Amino acid sequence: MTSNILRDITENPDLGITMADGTRLSARTWIPVDAAEAPVPAILEFLPYRKRDGTTGRDCLTHPYFAKRGYACIRADMRGNGDSEGVMEDEYSPQELSDAVETINWLAAQPWCSGTVGMMGISWGGFNALQVAALQPEALKAIITLCSTVDRYADDIHYKGGCLLNENLGWSGTMWSYSSKAPDPILRPDDWREIWMDRLENEPFLAAKWLEHQRRDTYWEHGSVCEDYSAIKAATLAIGGWGDAYKNAPPALIENLTAPAKAIIGPWVHKYPHFAIPEPRIGFLQEALRWWDHWLKEEDTGVQNDPLYRPYLMESVAPKSWYTERPGRWLAINDKPSTLPRETWHLSDTGLQKTPASLSKTINSPQTCGAHSGEYCAIWLGPELPDDQRGDDALSAVFQTEPLLESRDIVGAPQIKLTLSCDRPQGQIAVRLLDIQPNGASARITYGVLNLTHRSSHSAPQPMTPDRAEEVMLDLDHIAYRLPAGHRLGIAISTAYWPLIWPSPEVTTLTLSKGAISIPMRPSGNTDEWTFEKPEADTPWQTETIREASNSRKTTTDWTTGIVTLEIVDDFGKVKDSDHGLINGSIAREWYFINPDDPLSANARTHWSDELERDGMALRTEAMSEMYADATHFHLSGRMEAYENNVLVFEKDVQRSIPRDNL
């Protein structure tokens, strides 16, 4: 077993790793001082999110912890971002994955490395860890992937159920901003401005690129590891959070990988589990260390005897947009998710019941239905979770059971089958599984959406024949949730879900004539509980606060035009690094506009402001984007402005119109 004696480490803020084409990537490293005499495995985190100021807070908590316990930890900036050279082409591009493989091979060949490498990351880093593992670099023996996906089309921030997510524009706006920032001038004193101008001129406007692929084509197949699970040979620990968008990958990976795999899903939003909200947090670093020690050092840490699946079963609580903690318990499950028991409930004119019954229901939701959905990907630690659903329920068709006589545990992904007709060639549905509480409050347990033209295929969509009944099926997201006795189980179905998904081009009316939902449900019990260690971490990032962080989210209605506006402002504050002195700050703003009666009134806008300051020099970028649509096209625009000491030094405008493709 690993010694309890911590090793002294040395930190390098700018280790250069040169790619075959001459591009220099910059990495921050934490390596035991005696690694040249006693080589250690390497752990790589490969990201675009700026090691110097973007992920510094979490890097300080995480990487030194592993390094002191016998690992070389490498946090590399991808090309075109942070302190690395080059220009980023796209997310998960062949160039990115090639660079990652080349970096792994370089690490394995260093005299301080034992020759084995692990790869770890959350979100982007979780995605590319899976994708790089599928490329099978020889030195890569294990990965830890957090908040990631196995299917870039069906389960990422672009499309869901064939519907266009507003996150497609929102995340593009984020990367439009992140990749526009300069390297730290102190690390690149001779050419930082040249690198900055090159980025500003050549960075892609990703919203348009992603919107050019509205169906599941080869563009999305690239990097989707579900295309060939068997390609992944590295041992895989998959972690997710019920408050996050990416909750389906851990069950999919343990279901389908032939390589050793385990899964953990907590109550968290899009954060590492040792500092995530809502609590309870877990000793993620200890769990990760057990994983690395076993697969990278060949020590018997018992990880192979851990349960296949450890989901956090959340208790029912009053619905609200933010929680500091969620009561519940950890389950220890050794069966694959597909084998867990299921129950079928039927939709009827009188509610939700165990036996089939007559059903005839029309649905025509205002375009504002979905206002209580929360963020698609809760990440910024503001009021982003789905709150009381009664406002959306009033705009939906709702089916509910009688009060349950005993508590029931829902563990898995519900699947609903509906026979319906649509009065237009295009339409969409949103299905929500509800916990309807004795006081009338309605909590969203899980949900799914479907573009009806994608009812048979995401790669070959077909319009509906108006007023002809067809059978459609969709999966809701995985969940683990205890529904108490006395509560009602509910299903809500709507024809809109704004601002989470972009509306169909016409107002639609659906008619339901049959429906049943299969729910992975079992009697409540405490026989398979698990306990994690309390979280540990290394020394937090030391900073001086210049501007406090804040968050606001408000909805307003223009009583003249009828336009309803959601405004979100995330001010991430402004801080000075106490070690090297770099000052950074950012503010993100989003606006979503729609008239309840007109889907073509939909409009979305983003505006990011980013600041870097050092030694009397102030750099700032303003990244703006917008999208609206008519019946035939999406219309996108972007504007980038860059300032040096408040003088405009660069500006660029981008405009694109892209045909709607069954969307």
Account of the 3D structure:
With 663 residues, this protein is mainly beta. It folds into three domains: 271 residues, 3-Layer(aba) Sandwich (Rossmann fold), CATH 3.40.50; 185 residues, Galactose-binding domain-like (Jelly Rolls, Sandwich), CATH 2.60.120; 117 residues. Helix content is 15%, strand content 38%. The protein has ten helices and 34 strands. It has an eleven-stranded mixed β-sheet with strand order 1-2-4-3-5-6-9-10-11-12-26, sandwiched between helices. Strands 27, 28, 29, 30, 31, 32, 33 and 34 form an eight-stranded antiparallel β-sheet that branches. Helix 2 crosses helix 3. The model has no long low-confidence stretch (mean pLDDT 96).
